[in-house]
Amino acid sequence: KTTKADPTYPECNLFNLYLDEYDTKWTSQINRLDYLVISSGHWFYRPVIFYENETISGCQYCALPNTTQLPLYYGYTKALRTSLRAILENFKGLAFLRSFSPQHFEGGPWDKGGDCVRTRPYRRNETIPEGADLKIHDIQVEEFRAAEEEMKKKQGLRLRLMDTTQAMLLRPDGHPGRYGHMQTAA
After folding, report:
1. Mean residue pLDDT across the chain
2. What is the pLDDT averaged over residues 18-39?
3. What does residue 150 show for φ and ψ, rounded to 5 degrees?
4. Distance (Å, whole) CA 131 – CA 81
5. For the whole model, what pTM was predicted?
6. Across the beta sheet with 55-60, what order do the strands follow?
7. Calpha distance 79→48 (Å, rounded)
8. CA-CA-CA-CA torsion sign (143, 144, 149, 153)
9. Beta-strand (E) ranges in 25-117?
10. Sequence-distant (≥ 6) Cβ neighbours of residue 117 within 8 angstroms
11. Do residues 180 and 114 make contact, with C-beta atoms less than 8 angstroms apart?
């Protein structure tokens, strides 16, 4: 479950993320679906205040005083686990967890001059998932395996992993290149 930290201030890029609560906007409707796809990852790179048991447990990229700075992996793992638990408890159809699509910037991060100028896909031996991208993928696989074990106890639910990380790493068109952010005078 997520909310804007200050909904009265549209430019605020800080979000509240309730790591142990379901978002009833979707959990109240999933019993009407036959198929469900969870596709997540890059959203979690934003400034976030984490809540657990209705209390602030920390934050990420927030610089709030007297608040523990927690890594991306902390919030992502717990949020994914909660989402999978909601599916296990409330869904009877076919659910897919689509793995993380890696970043494609060369020459630096997207906001520090990095660009995506490839015109042909990488070959398999030219690149491998690494760093944060690999860690997010590993979290997804680990949480999927745990949910898969729980799923065996449920009748009717089918859960599948659509592991697209390697294929998405190879593609040349992963991001809009220099057009993905405001251009500077330089």
Report:
1. 84
2. 92
3. -65, -35
4. 21
5. 0.84
6. 2-4, 15-18, 48-52, 55-60
7. 12
8. positive
9. 35-39, 48-52, 55-60, 94-98
10. 106, 177
11. no
